[in-house]
Amino acid sequence: MDRGAWDRVESELWKHSRFGVIRASVLETLGISQTTTYRQCQPGGRWRHLLPGVVMLARSLPTTRQRIEAALTFAKHQAVVTGFQAARLYGLRTGPDPQFVHLLIPHESRVLSSGFTVLERTRFFPVAMYRDGVPLAPPPRAVLDGVRRIRDLDAVRALLIEAVQSGQTDVDQLRGELDTGTKRGTALPRRVLGEIDLGVRSVAEADALEIWHRAGLPTPHRNVVIVDENGNYVGMPDTWCDEVGLAWELDSSEFHYSKDAYARTLERNSRYAAVGISVVQTLPSRLRKKPDAVVAELRAAYAAAQARTRPPVCIRKAGST
Predict the structure, then answer these.
(1) DSSP letters of 115-135?
(2) Tell me: the pLDDT tens digits for 197-210?
(3) What is the rounded distance in angstroms from the CA atom of residue 220 to the CA atom of residue 247?
(4) Helix, strand or coil, per DSSP, at residue 195
């Protein structure tokens, strides 16, 4: 068959594909023999073999969408995308880059993982949510299916914190999913949810919480609004020790320096000083490079704050203005 004829044939075949991905058995029903399909997927051919029985009608490397379509086509039966690939499709950007397409399939299915597709059979098959025509596990299930397969605490923290902060899910939904599904790989996610409960909003803040506990100081408040005795706004410390009126701030200017940020920091510290709040400022990099030194600084600051009269400030109650 000459090139022009092949172009016309492929144009027709493309209409029966999903983004150029098609099952070999469908090609056969369209008049393309198994021998022809095999030959076109060999070096020098026009197509690419992606997964057992699944072909792409081009020789180029498959796009992310084509890999997803190939995985769904390979699964044959009902399937939803989950894990890090689903997280990306929900718009989440933290966590590891997807190395494979992770699918959930009904427990009775007997299709096995192959190539870049990981098939996970489950008795708790979720109702699919769709993004751009792709069936996805709901956000709580998707992110947890991803993080329970890794042992990198920072990566688990980053993705779960982003998922909550973005509004895709919340701590109660995530915890409910952990309680319902498999218990494998749930220790780190449970630890991170405990940190989020305490107000942790970033990996650096999680590191800070660990160091605070190492220092043996009272249970802190995270990101609460502090007001003076007249109800005027004073600040919102990263960490607040209400017992002695001690604020601990992670100096974000280490990574995001600007004149405006520096000015805001000076204004904040002036408000702290005006009402007598003790403040410790720490560069995020020191939390891991010099944790013992930070512990010593916090203990010293706490002792000094404890020795003076507590300033007349308080945490603003929820709903107050």
Answers:
(1) TTEEEEEESSPPPPEEETTEE
(2) 988 888 999 999 99
(3) 10
(4) helix
